[in-house]
Specification:
176 residues; elongated; four-stranded antiparallel sheet; single chain; alpha/beta
């Protein structure tokens, strides 16, 4: 492994010639040292540039609604409801059609984000566009069959949006 005797004490970095384009049970155990250390598999999953395009997301019905946040001024984007209570809902905010959200990202380039997919905290998400978008992204990323672990099913969620800040600080209203 490339990092056993290197400068990285807390992370194993796995080069492409080591993982050979596959994540298997065997190499996952090996490179995480039996799940005791994180590992970064360099260039394992090729992510197509189409995932950064409006056209990719526009293939999903843009009239379906979703919920998203828009940064206004210098106010922080927090997980609080309008009355100031913590709500653990990552996307309390505007509700509207996906075409408006995509316009905010790709045309207007506003600081916006939405939490898409099945949210693990049990949040009741009545908006299907996010689940469809997550499924489409997941299918695109996994189409090359690099993930080869029997009986493991990839679920989860993602944030989709735009930020005009390279390294935005939360106290300055960083998005997502």
């Amino acid at each position: 492994m490339s990092t056993l005797n290197s400068q990285y004490k807390f992370l194993n970095i796995v080069e492409p010639e080591e993982h050979r384009g596959k994540m298997t049970s065997e190499n996952l155990n090996k490179y995480t040292e039996d799940f005791t250390k994180p590992a970064l598999f360099k260039n394992l999953a090729l992510i197509d540039d189409e995932l950064k395009s409006r056209q990719f997301f526009g293939e999903i019905d843009e009239n379906l609604e979703l919920q998203w946040r828009v940064k206004n001024g210098n106010s922080g984007v927090t997980m609080r409801s309008k009355d100031g209570e913590s709500d653990y809902n990552y996307v309390t905010g505007k509700i509207g059609p996906a075409k408006e959200f995509l316009k905010n990202i790709f045309d207007d380039q506003l600081d916006v984000y939405s939490h898409l997919g099945t949210i693990s905290s049990g949040y009741n998400d009545p908006f299907p566009w996010g689940k469809l978008a997550f499924k489409k992204v997941r299918e695109s990323i996994f189409k090359n069959n690099w993930f080869d672990i029997p009986n493991w099913i990839v679920t989860g969620h993602m944030f989709l949006g735009n930020s005009t800040q390279d390294y935005g600080e939360p106290q300055n209203g960083a998005v997502g």
